[in-house]
Specification:
0% strand
């Protein structure tokens, strides 16, 4: 892989991670837990690939029903990937003392998601080249970020709620739902033109993510009172 191709592969994830670092303007997180979250997210690509390989097998070959496409998209891919990210978020970042406001759930979740998306992107771009790199820059990587925000929104709320498990799992469920819906329209073989609906799912996810970020930034307990 050339240096230029490698740069195309890692640039989107790093750019999004940097944006969220600076978006946390009232009580910015220390670098170390953010970096560790990013690295742990990247490491999750390995178990995800192994699990997906075992679960999917030859299911995507030949005639594939809509039901099988849904199972692959929502369970074998989305639930596996979001579940692994959720494990990192709850197992590491959630317990860190720097996680001290609801918006931190979004920040750490995005770091985990961008770590995952960045390494995944390196493999895709290495295998498929420039075209895939540019396409994923505006599709798959932002989709990982959007569902990371949605998961983090609820995990952040859970940190400061007595109903923590239920609220946190709602974030996992929502991330899995949107990730699965995005992949479903790409995986289904019934009508290839329906793949365009993945862009609709992406647009809705980004809109919800933007709203979630704005809400938690404005509600930050560290925001100066005017």
């Amino acid at each position: 892989m050339s240096l230029a191709l490698f740069a195309i592969a890692i640039a989107p994830g790093l750019a999004i991670a940097t944006y969220f670092y600076f978006r946390d303007k009232y009580d910015r997180e220390p670098f170390k837990p953010l970096f560790v979250s990013f690295l742990l997210g990247a490491f999750m690509v390995i178990p995800a690939a192994l699990l997906e390989g075992i679960l999917i097998g030859n299911a995507m070959e030949g005639n594939q029903s809509l039901l099988m496409s849904a199972v692959i998209a929502f369970v074998f891919v989305a639930l596996v990937e979001e579940g692994l990210k959720y494990g990192v978020l709850k197992g590491y970042a959630f317990k860190h003392p720097a996680f001290n406001e609801p918006f931190d759930g979004i920040v750490y979740s995005v770091m985990v998601s961008m770590g995952f998306a960045t390494l995944e992107n390196v493999f895709y771009v290495y295998g498929h080249g420039w075209g895939v790199g540019f396409l994923r820059m505006f599709t798959a990587v932002p989709m990982h970020a959007a569902v990371g925000v949605l998961m983090g929104y609820y995990v952040g709320k859970a940190k400061f709620s007595s109903a923590a498990p239920q609220i946190a799992l709602k974030g996992l469920a929502l991330a899995t739902l949107f990730h699965g819906a995005y992949d479903f329209w790409l995986f289904q073989k019934w009508n290839q033109s329906l793949a365009l609906l993945a862009f609709v799912v992406l647009a809705i996810s980004l809109r919800l993510a933007k709203k979630s970020v704005r809400e938690q930034v404005e509600d930050s307990p560290f925001k100066p009172h005017s």
